[in-house]
Input
Amino acid sequence: MINFFIKTYGCQANVADSQAVANFLVNLDCKQVYSEKLADLIIINTCAIREKSEQKIYSYLGRLAKLQKRNSLLKIIVIGCVASYKKKDFYVRFGFITFVSGSRDDKNVLRDKLIDIVLSMQTSKSLLVPNKKDFLDNQDKNNFKLGGVRRETRHSTQSFINIMTGCNNFCTYCIVPFTRGSEISYSSKEILEKIKQDIALGTKEIFLLGQNVNSYKCPETNLNFAQLLEAVAKLEGDFWVRFVSSHPKDMTLDVIKVMAKYKEKVCGFVHHPLQSGSNKILKAMNRSYTLEKYLKQVDWIRNYLPDATISTDIIVGFPGETDQDFEQTLEVIKKIKFDNIFSFIYSPRKFTKAAMLKDNLSYEQKQSRLAILQKIQVDISRANNENYVGCILKCLVEKEAVNGMLLARSAGNHTILFDGDLAKIDTFVNIKINSARATNLIGSLIE
Ligand code: SAH
Ligand code: SF4
Ligand code: F3S
Output
C-alpha cells in the first residue's frame, strides 16, 4: 500500500483541492497518513498570496530534502498557486521534485501523472498492480475539481466544495487572478450531486468556496449564488452550510434573505473582506465598492440576521496609505465591531499593478499599524465573545484540542473548548458558555 501525506498552505480553495487529491488517491488504493515520515508520496499544495506564504514553501521543501536523502524512493509533488508560475524554479532549485502542477494547469494531466506515479510505486513495492484502465474508469472527473470528502467509510465531517475557480476582479495587490486564472463557475447540478453524496457519507458541514461567491452563475441554468445556496439548504439531512468569500462588490440582499430563511442550515456567519476603511485606498486597490456600500451591507446582515457574526480581511500599509487613511480603517473597525479580523501587511506581488506603485512607508511603520489594529481588535473580539457567556450554542465537535479538551465550532464560527467524551467528535452538541476570551469560548456540555 502506498502512503501519502498532503501539506496544504493557503486558503480554503487549496483545502478543497487537497481534499480532491486525497479522495482521488484513496480511490487508487493509497492510504492517507498524517506524518511525512510515514509517507511514500508527499504532495505540497502551495500558496502565493504574500511573500511570506511563498517563503514558507521553500523552507518546508528544504526540510523535505533531508527526508528525501534518507529515502530516495520518496516521491514529491508540488501543486497550487506558487506552482502556477514558478514551475521551472521548483525543478531547478529542488532537483528531487517528481512533478509540478499549477492551480490553473489542466487537472487531467495531474490525474494521469498521479496514476502513473502510483502505478510505478506499486510496481516497485511489488504489490498487486491493478490495471490502469480500471483506475481511470473508477474515477469521477468532477470530484477532482470540486473537492469534497472521500468515498470511503471513514467519517469525515467537513466537505470543502469549490463552486467556482479563478477570479476576474484584479484587485491591484492580488496575485490570485494570475495563479488561478479567469473566473469559471461550475455546474450547479454537479455541485448539488457532490454535496448529496457527501451528506450520505456523513458530512455535517459544507463549505461553498470561491474567491467571490456572489458572482457565481451556473453555466447551464444561470442559477445565481442566492439560488444555489437555497438549493443546498433545501437538501435533506442534518448539516450546516457556510460560504467564503463574499465580495462587497457583488453581495446581494437575496443572499442574506436566504440565510435568514434557512437559518437552521445556513450558518449565521459572513466573512466579508473590507480591506480598508478609506475610499481612496479602496479605489487604489480596485475593489469597486465604497465604504458606504459596505456599511449598507453590514446593516442588511444586522437587520436580517441579528445573531450572525461578521469577520473581515484588512490590509495595512498599501502604497499611498496615509495616517488619515489608516485612522479611517480604525474608525470603521470600531464602528462595525467585527467578531474577527484577518489582518495583513501589504506584500508586493509579482504581476500585480500595485507592485509598480511607490511605497511611502517603512516596514516598521507598517508593523506598527498592524499592531495598533490588532490590539484594538483583540478588545473588540473579547467584548463580543463575552456577550455569549450564559448562552447555549449549538456546535459541531471537530477534534481533541492540545490541552485534552474537545474543540467545537459554533454556527457563528466561534471556537469553543469543553470537556467531553471523544465519541462526541463529528456530532452536533449544545454547549453552555461559561467564559470568554478574545480567541475562544469555554463551555460545558448540555446532555
Ligand atoms: N477573494 C477574497 C480574498 C482572497 S485572498 C476577497 O476578495 O476578499 C485573502 C486575503 O489576503 C485578502 O482578502 C487580502 O486581505 C489578503 N491579501 C491578498 N493579497 C495580498 C497582498 N499582496 N498583501 C497582503 N495581503 C494580501
Ligand atoms: Fe484577489 Fe480581489 Fe480576486 Fe479576492 S477578489 S481573489 S482579493 S483579485
Ligand atoms: Fe493562496 Fe492561491 Fe488561495 S494564492 S490564498 S492558495 S487562491
About this structure: The first helix runs from residue 12 to 27. Residues 273 and 318 are 15 Å apart (CA to CA). The chain has a mean pLDDT of 93.
